[in-house]
Amino acid sequence: MVEGDFFKQVHQVVQLIPYGRVTSYGAIASYLGSAGAARMVGWALHKSGASAKPIPAHRVLNRNGLLSGKAAFPGENIMQQLLESEGLTVVNNQVKDFEKYFWDPKELDDL
DNA sequence: TGCATGACCTGAG
DNA sequence: GCTCAGGCCATGC
């Protein structure tokens, strides 16, 4: 489970994303109890750069599996390379079989 | 203190 | 099936 501020919760959830898996802003927002606050999730991730721990923000995509936050990374295709290095296939800034690799934070509750 | 914005999502037309 | 508009909450100026 996660605890603390919304930002911290987002950071924790993102860090809990299994290797080779991805999730969406809405899923995280919904998990935190604010389904409509998906925008804030992106904010937290953007701010994650200031965080002490390295947060795999590249595993967080939008609902379409699109690398919406790609631009926030230092490189052009850093996000894509990271995903590909985890066994995922990125085509046109979009994860192939996104739903297949999709990971819902709510799965933690089921554990 | 108040308005505008932001790596989005969902519902309605 | 696709496009437009609204909403959500916190941060920044």
Topology:
Blueprint: H1 6-15, E1 23-24, H2 25-31, H3 38-47, E2 60-61, H4 78-85, H5 98-101, H6 107-110
Parallel strand pairs: 1-2
This protein binds a DNA duplex (13 and 13 nucleotides) through residues 6-7, 24-26, 29-30, 34-47, 57, 60-63, 67-73.
Question: Which structural traits does this protein have?
Answer:
111 residues, mainly alpha, Arc Repressor Mutant, subunit A, two-stranded parallel sheet, globular, DNA-binding, methyltransferase, Methylated-DNA-protein-cysteine methyltransferase related protein, DNA damage, methyltransferase activity, MethylDNA_cys_MeTrfase_DNAb
CATH class: Mainly Alpha
N-to-C series of helices and strands: HEHHEHHH
Q: Calculate Rg over CA atoms.
A: 13 Å
Q: What general form does the structure show?
A: globular
Helix content: 25-40%
How do the strands line up in the largest sheet?
1-2
CATH architecture: Orthogonal Bundle
How many beta-strand runs? 2
The CATH superfamily turns out to be Winged helix-like DNA-binding domain superfamily/Winged helix DNA-binding domain
Question: How many separate domains?
Answer: 1
Stretches where pLDDT is under 50 for at least 5 consecutive residues are none
Total DSSP helices: 6
Oligomer: single chain
InterPro entries: ATL_DNA_repair (IPR052520), MethylDNA_cys_MeTrfase_DNA-bd (IPR014048), MethylDNA_cys_MeTrfase_DNAb (IPR036217), WH-like_DNA-bd_sf (IPR036388)
Keywords: DNA damage, Methyltransferase, Transferase
Pfam families: DNA_binding_1
Domain Methylated-DNA-[protein]-cysteine S-methyltransferase DNA binding: 5-87
